[in-house]
Design goal:
Elements: H1 15-32, E1 40-42, E2 51-63, E3 66-75, E4 77-86, H2 87-94, H3 103-122, H4 132-135, E5 141-142, H5 150-163, E6 170-174, H6 176-184, H7 193-201, E7 205-207, E8 214-218, E9 224-228, E10 233-239, E11 243-256, E12 262-266
Parallel strand pairs: 1-9, 5-12, 6-7
Antiparallel strand pairs: 2-3, 4-11, 6-8, 8-12, 9-11, 10-11
Helix pairs in contact: 1-3, 5-7
Pfam families: Linocin_M18
Main location: other
Family: Belongs to the encapsulin family. Family 1 subfamily.
Length: 271
């Protein structure tokens, strides 16, 4: 979905070139936007949408006997990741080249996806976003380096959630290093560690760049609320004889509705 402020019509890029860029961005972002896989996504509501309703009010000083209250809202934050594309590469694509160098776009997609994951899962103070690991009242569960012991810690986290009245299914969100280790590990008897974890969770294991440690979260719905204004889109900045300057952009906010619906598996030595 393209908004007018993205100025795409001014870029020296063919319709086919735009399809290529959008497809590449979509593929990269779908993989990297791990936080979206474990929260409730609402929107997109458009670039003009400015704030998320919190459903609460603050009383204001009375005036002439009136009762006055101001609604609380959480402003959306705009996030942008710049990247470039070679005009020669775009021209080669239009001629039928089998390969197009889009490394800058791929790096920007990973950067902006990681920023969104961190905001949702660990918070973003400057944007007034209180993340999942900040909100949870449960004590973090320390993680040791032996990934074979991971099921014990995940099972403990699941037990904590069940005792708090939080229902299944659950998801396990992991940063890239932990994800690789879990997926590559086997337990005694040759069983895959990932399969054991999924049986405990009754839910998925999610790759999320930017995550610190691991987080076990309820996927029952209604606990973690992500509101999208403009969903991630490619916009045009400017160009010269050799390079087109573009960017990925989104606006969003996030709130935790049920703080007790997640448990953080913290790294050793992490505050």
């Amino acid at each position: 979905m393209t908004a007018n402020h993205l100025l795409r019509e001014l870029a020296p890029i063919s319709a086919g070139g735009w399809r290529l860029l959008d497809q590449e961005a979509r593929q990269r972002l779908t993989v990297a936007l791990g936080a979206r896989k474990v929260v409730d996504f609402s929107g997109p509501r458009g670039w003009e949408h400015s704030a998320m309703s919190l459903g609460r009010t603050d009383e204001l000083p009375l005036n002439d006997g009136l009762v006055v209250a101001q609604r609380r809202v959480l402003p959306l934050v705009e996030v942008r990741a710049d990247f470039t594309v070679s005009r020669r590469e775009l021209e080669a694509y239009d001629r039928g080249a089998a390969y197009t160098d889009l490394d800058s776009l791929n790096e920007a997609a990973l950067r902006i996806a990681s920023a969104e994951n961190v905001a949702v899962l660990h918070g973003w103070e400057a944007a007034s976003i209180h993340g999942v690991t900040q909100a949870t009242p449960h004590e973090p569960i320390p993680r040791v380096e032996d990934f074979v012991d991971y099921p014990k810690r995940v099972a403990k986290a699941v037990t904590v959630l069940l005792q708090a009245g939080i229902g299944e299914p659950f998801g396990l969100v992991l940063g890239p290093g932990h994800y690789n280790a879990v997926m590559e590990s086997t337990e005694r008897g040759g069983y895959l560690l990932a399969e054991h974890l999924q049986r405990i969770l009754h839910g998925p294991i999610v790759w999320a760049p930017g995550v610190r440690g691991a987080i076990v979260m309820s996927l029952r719905g209604g606990d973690f609320l992500f509101e999208s204004g403009q969903d991630l889109s490619i916009g045009y900045s400017h160009h010269d004889a050799d390079t087109v300057h573009l960017y990925l952009e989104e606006s969003f906010s996030f709130q935790v509705a049920t703080p007790e619906a997640a448990v953080h598996l913290r790294n050793r030595g992490e505050e």
